[in-house]
Structures are given as C-alpha cells and as structure tokens.
Amino acid sequence: MSGALANNLLEKPLVANQDCVLEGTSFSSSNLREITKPLAPRISTHSVILSPSSSGDLAERVCAELGTTKAKIILDSFPNSETRIEVHESVRNRHAFIVASIESPVNQGVMETVLLAQALKLADAKRITVVLPYFPYARQDRKTDTRPPISAKAITDILKVVGVDQIVTIDLHATQIEGFFNGPLENLSGLNQLVEPLIKEVGSELIVVSPDAGGAKRAEKFARQIEKLTNNFTPLVVMSKFRPGPGVPPQVTLSCGEEFLSGKTCVLVDDMIDTGGSIIAAAESLKAKGVARVIVCASHGVFSNEAVFKMKTASFNAEPTIDQIFVTNTLPIKEKPSDFLKIVSISTLLAEAIARLDQPMGTLSSLKERTDMGYLLNK
Length: 379
Description:
By secondary structure, the protein is α/β, with parallel strands linked by helices. About 30% of the residues lie in helices and about 25% in strands. It has helices at about 5-10, 60-65, 105-120, 150-160, 190-200, 215-230, 260, 275-290, 305-315, 345-355; strands spanning about 20, 25, 45-50, 75, 85, 95-100, 125-130, 165-170, 185-190, 205-210, 235-240, 240, 250-255, 265-275, 295-300, 315, 320, 325-330, 340-345, 375. The longest helix has 17 residues, at about 105-120.
C-alpha cells in the first residue's frame, strides 16, 4: 500500500466524537457517528419514511442522516396475535419509503411490512418503496429438493400484490432474486462498506477466501475492491463445501496448500452468518494450513443460536479459530461491538439511496461501487 493511501485510510474518522440530537431524540456519540443535521431535510415533503417495529435503530439512523423523522404509525397486535396497523400521517400522492430491517421472528416482520405497504396503498400513496436491508427467505431461492417452495419468489409476489413499486436491498443471497420482482429491485453492496474499516484494522496484505463455490463471485468482487484501495494484488481462494443435510456440520476442502497460506491473514467473505457452523468449519480448514489470522466479513449478521459466542470461543490447537468478525447492521445485533465483533453501519448508504430516489430522475447505479459509506459503531 502506498504511504499516502495508507495514511488516508488510517486518518479517516469512522466513529463520532460528539453527540447528535434530532427532534428531541438523543443519540450517544458512542453508538452513532456525528451527523450534521442539514439546514433543510435531504428529502422533499413529497416523501415520507415509515418503519415496522422490528427494524431496531437502523431506520432512526437513516432518518437522522436525512434530517427528518419517521411518520407516526400504530403497530400493535390483537389478542389472537394478528397484527394491527394504522398510519397516522397523510401519505396521499407522496412517495412512501418503508425501512424494514426484519429480524427474528421473521414471519412477524414480513407480515408487518406487507400490511404497512397495503395500508399505504389504500391511503393513496403515489409510490411505495420497500427498503429491505436483509431480504427474508433469500436462501430459499430455487428448488433444491422434491417439491419445496421457492419462498423468495413468494415474498416478491406478495409485496407486488399489496402495491409495492420498488425494492431496495443489500447483498442478496442470490442475484437471481432480482428477476423475481416485477419492478425495479436495487441490490446495493454492504460488503463494499466493510473494505475500508477492514484495511484500517487489519492491514492490506490479505488473502480473500470464499467458503464455497457459490460465493466465488462475491468474494472476487471483494478482493478487487481491496486492490483498488491498496494497489496490492489480493489473491482469491475458493473452498469446496459439502453439507450432508440440514443442521449437519459441512465438510470443507481447500484447493491450495500450506506453502501458499502459511503465516498469512485470510479474509472469509460471505453474505450472511446464521449459526456460524459453516464459517467455523472453513476457518478450521484455514488454520490447519498454517494461516496466522482468520478474519470474517459478512453483510448480514443473523447470528442464531448464540452464533457469536460459538465463533468467539471456537479454538484450533489452543488458538482462536476466528480472530475477528466484520458485519454490517442490516439486522439488529444483540451483541455489542468489541475487538472481536466489528459492526459497520450502512445507514449512510441507505439514506443516500432514499435521497436519490426522492428525485424524479434519481438513480442508484453509482452507489453500487462506493466503498466510503460505512462507519464503525462503538456500542
């Protein structure tokens, strides 16, 4: 890495130094970077932002970036658990953005999003854009067995039926899902926002590794982004993974030997981490080849069944199997950021996307290659 470029990356502030107060809501500097509230909101009065209850603080961060607040809604449940929604702000002839970061229970979050979209349609919203940082059911994108559903297609069909005009998401599990929706579907990159924080924390001498063949293109793009920022050649290694059945630890094999990997820092790149089993198996294979450090980068921290604890405590020859994890906040993460778990906010990326779509001729094409729109959270 050139000296000037290295200094630029190291000096770039990724965390706030001051508090930010917006419309009576205080955000601590320790968990929200400094946001200078614009003299005027970055979106017009013809647009409105709404969010289901399951979206954590991501929608609040997006609104803070845009200099606005969420529209008021009532989101409750009837005694039999059916979802009840009322929109308490006029949306007639307005562009409505639903920011829905759907965590567990996923089905509840999906239903809240669907009913909110239909409520907006019935209230005569001019256009409805659903921002799904994590696309639910994306892993069920094809028929892999006898007579299963293609659940990702069902989600896009439901959203279209209730009146959604456009979907914005982050790092789809399979890009073929873009063709499931009969309308614009923008697939932005959250992995790109991990590149600068990764280089700042770990350095530029890296080997990028895909834990399976299906993620090879994703990992290759990640490696090329590192090369653009560092001017260093970044090798790519693709693993072979075979899973005997659901819930069974996968069998992982490597295509290169110890002479290539020994003493190196490897970055495992994936779109999501659920239970962590596959990532641990891949990291063990790398450590068995003499890799000095294994860093994991993923867009979506699903983190089911105490995944973070399992990955943090996994060991190989009395050494940590995984040294660090970098994820974005597309999903609410219960674990606090630490030296082991680095969380990068993508609120700036989503805010910029919404601001552009608020414009009559707005386009998101140039956002897909940006690497400078993420910032580290402290807690």
